[in-house]
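Illustration: Glycoside hydrolase family 32 protein.
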Amino acid sequence: MKSPLTSAALLAALPLAFTQEHYGPPNPGPHSDGPWSGSWSGSWGPEHRPTSWAGHGWPSAAMSPSAAMSSAAMSSAAMMSSSGAMSSAAMISPSAPAPVSPSAPAPLSSSAPAPLSPSAPVSPIYSGSATISSAYATGTSGSGNAQSCTPLTTAEIEAMGNNTLFTRWRSHSHFIAPAGWMNDPCGSMYDPTRDVYHLFYQWHPQHINWGNISWGHATSKDMITWEDQGGWQDAEARAMGPSGVGRKAPTDPLTSANYNGLGIFSGTAQPVNLHGEQDGTLLLFYTSVSYLPTSWTSFYAPYTETQSLAYSTDGGATFEQYAGNPVINATTGTPPMDWNVTGFRDPFFQPSPALDAVLGCSEPHYYAVFGSGIKGVGPRMPLWTAPASDLTSWSFLGALWEPADNTTLGPILSTGTYGFNFEVSGFFSLPDKSGELHYFVNMGTEGGNVSFHESAHWALWNEGNVSRRDNGSVQFTPIAGGAGDWGLSYALTSFNDTKHNRRVQWAWAPEDLVGDGGLFSASQQGFQGSLTLPRELFVHEVDGVMNTNSAVFDSKESVLTPDAHGSFTARTLGVRPLPDVIQGITASATHQTYSSGKYTASKMLQQQGSSHMELKATVSSATGAAGVILAASPDMTEYTTIMYEPANNTILVERLHSSTIDGFANVTVTGYFAPYTLAASSQPEAITMDIFLDGSILEVYVNERFALTTRIYPSMECSTGFGVYVAAGGEAVMGSVEAWVGTGNVWPGRPADSSSPLLWDSAAETDIYTWWSGN
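Result:
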């Protein structure tokens, strides 16, 4: 058991030199609608994550809404109206003054798998807290506005009214809804006709819980700064909602309720019309919902989920439902409806000349995959196709591959588990540096092993070989895999950015609230969730890699190609935050560089930083765990440690001291990362951590092939210090440490407080659509 840091450890040591400049970073190198789409229900495990799920945020049969979601700020909390009749909902007004918030951010200008038991034991990776040497040096105090060191308490939060903490832990450098509940990214695309990026998202405006799920909408010229479409107030940014809810979805409730009356679930988009032509039309392909609740663990009723189209001819100002919806209907009796499915949702569609060639198509086609599974058999990714000339006519090609229930491609520590159901699936190809195409899938997996991962939901990817089956369908054979995000992010989805010839991925980053049945501080903050930074996916290749004792091969994270020197080229899925977006959000930040060299103890570099910053550090070598500390208070009552642990090849975000407030999760988040051993030096590669803190959201990227997202909620505004971490008794050589303090605001058209009045939906409203009362 390691000892936690105490304030007595703040002693002077190691002198440090640092330079301060005012420019951006150096020139860089070249995700749902299932249970996570809603509020968590069921029992809560020892790691402060759900251990049972009712699907789509619905309480399990054994739990009443009030028992599942009791809250000190609300007599009961539950999911809300599906009717969209907001006029009869009662508003809940704040009852306490808002705390002092930090100054508004500077605006930016546009410029053969093995079966695995769910309870199979896995050796613990990490326990206790980071040990920091007693020779803990202080750094510079930094500059900027005074930051309060008065801690906010659990009792104070519970006594506050709605939206009083709206700006306290809110991000401003990330994509986030104006207010209210948000989850999956949807419909991301580039419109070449108007030179505009579009991004939609699952949204329940004016509520802090999942329910009545709609699509919100924002646009951008560069994916750096964003603009709400329709406005930021209340539900103005809603593009379309169930049964015509929202000013932009002129759908007749009497006719639409048969297929989308209870939800507009996730989907994707293309800048084409129904005939596959680029004429300025924007086409959305989404899951329409007519029956709830739904879960992979329960009976799947006919008509639950169908697939529908909507389109816009005015650049996204309004959307019209296709008159022939749904285009893939549960009543047809065609597969996968005869599968006894666990679910059937989240269409991911796009053209693929490469698949056209594999299947020998005489004309261009579009291809769509969905999240699904067969009860008692295994998760599935069904593949459908339509000729580009008629995107309303879809044909089933079969499942891409057929994993068994709760199996893994390789060791669970490195490749995760397939679970029992797939959600928010994707299927795409990427070129390597020679131009050869490689095929990848991504999927959210449900119900798998939780002995290593913090929840039963994994965000995974696989690379595989693609071939044509004898029956004319497509066979995907996985050969490598891993986690798209090792933390809480889910519903990862991507699009082809044709403007820059790259694949861009978005992911949902839910909150990490554990008190009050998962709703602690939700009404006081007035919102839940955001998206991660946009990420570039690419084929990551490293030459001259050694496969000592078959360690790299056995992990199944990389594909190895032998070279002429007895070593290998290692290939895996690369991931990095979009370099141009990072340069944009750090352009107005204060750039600081700290001295490199050997560290024999942990050391504070700056005692006053920011809760909106980038921190980049390279660990060239280390004898034990090493990394960085951030979000630290001057007395070290609060701090978060991010480290690489060489003993078990893991990246850890240790949150035991991240907040003194009880209602937030504080478990350590762990991800697998094994550095390659390079033949040229016979030493492991250096480890570069690129870390982004933006309010409560914390993203960690390592060596452009690892991502982890989590949340921290310090109780003190002054918990902004950062430094270098070295395990007690160890030493580390730091190649470089850089900080960009004070990242910019990517929503220049919104006020800092864009909160909306929260609505309480009555039982009279919600009984019509089988919802329950709540907000």
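Reading the tokens back as a structure: The mean pLDDT is 82.
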